[in-house]
Amino acid sequence: MRGFLVIGNKATTSPFSLKNIPGAGRMDILCRCISQAIFLSHSIRKSLEVYLLLLGDPNPPIVVKIKSDEVRRMSPDERSIAGLIRKALKFKAGEGWTETNSGIFISKKGLRGLLEDLSNSYHIYYMREDGEDIRKISYKMENPLFVLGDHVGVKKEDEKIILRFAEDIVSVSKLSLMAEQCITIANYELDRTSMNIQNTLLNYSKK
Amino acid sequence: MRGFLVIGNKATTSPFSLKNIPGAGRMDILCRCISQAIFLSHSIRKSLEVYLLLLGDPNPPIVVKIKSDEVRRMSPDERSIAGLIRKALKFKAGEGWTETNSGIFISKKGLRGLLEDLSNSYHIYYMREDGEDIRKISYKMENPLFVLGDHVGVKKEDEKIILRFAEDIVSVSKLSLMAEQCITIANYELDRTSMNIQNTLLNYSKK
Q1: A104: which of A69, B22, B53, B198 is 20 to 30 A away, CA to CA?
Q2: What is the domain-level CATH number for residue B24?
Q3: Which chain A residues are within 8 Å of B188, Cβ to Cβ?
Q4: ipTM score here?
Q5: Cβ distance of B32 and A28 shorter than 8 Å
Q6: How many domains does chain B have?
Q7: What residue numbers bound the domain in which A60 lies?
């Protein structure tokens, strides 16, 4: 299992126009995060979850969850993904998860409640530029879930909550990258690590 | 200098509707390639060029060039970038470069002519899954320009032309990734290498 939680500080919590996706509190960033997290060329990654915490008006907080194993009829372009998020926001979000499309769910959780749930199945890592180099610690990450902010970053009070749950602060670059680039790089480093492990096991079994 | 050349095998060569960017021969892929290549969080990379070779109907080939140092009023979302490409396609493409917006140019070059020009200022690398691991060779790349295909890949006859100009075939993953993910990873590996070199020089000058 692998997961990403992206905090959309201004992302709208009501249905929005597909003609102006950035205008919906920079929903374009969140769409690209989903796209870059779950899609490969002509296929979708297995066992990957993306959580979007929407904190914009008029009805925050709302969480949208995407389960890669169950998602259907999604393309990697922003408009396709935005259309599915818009549809999800037409549903009433309750305490539990409501499925709004195959593999897409909505809930009225806040950051603390969400992290409490997630820490049952994931090891939480907080992504920040000054963290530990992911390349040095990816080998020991089991079922990691990375928490990261959008263009605004992560507010101090949210950071405090995250750090209560996080095993480590991890950095993917000394440059300040866009959220979806951080996700691509995390996937890349984890892929390399898991392939190295597979190769090692393969070599071992050959002996 | 760093560059990327993405081959859009079916990408339209006439102005298209922004309501259906994937329908324009998967122009969405090319927009994401530009976005992931040149944007950082709240800034734009220096000295980076992206070339899109559009090979779709009705008027192929057309090349769109984006110079990061000169580009203005572009946002990282697909629609913003698609709007600028659409505008470029309203101009008549000639043999030379016509500027259609700050930092955006159009020309009626084919793959061979383009690579002939580019090989004057770049070392050309061809991106293919079975190539050399980029991590092993990034340290020796000076002014690299990476050639890669869209969702269709690269046609045999185009590959032959590329290989005539390419110094090496380079791979960023054993997984089949989307073109924009390959670009993000190439930037990442080159950033790490150049930072290592800077650190080494820094340590050296301290002695």
Answers
A1: B22
A2: 3.40.1280.10
A3: 172-173, 181, 185, 188
A4: 0.95
A5: no
A6: 1
A7: 2-206
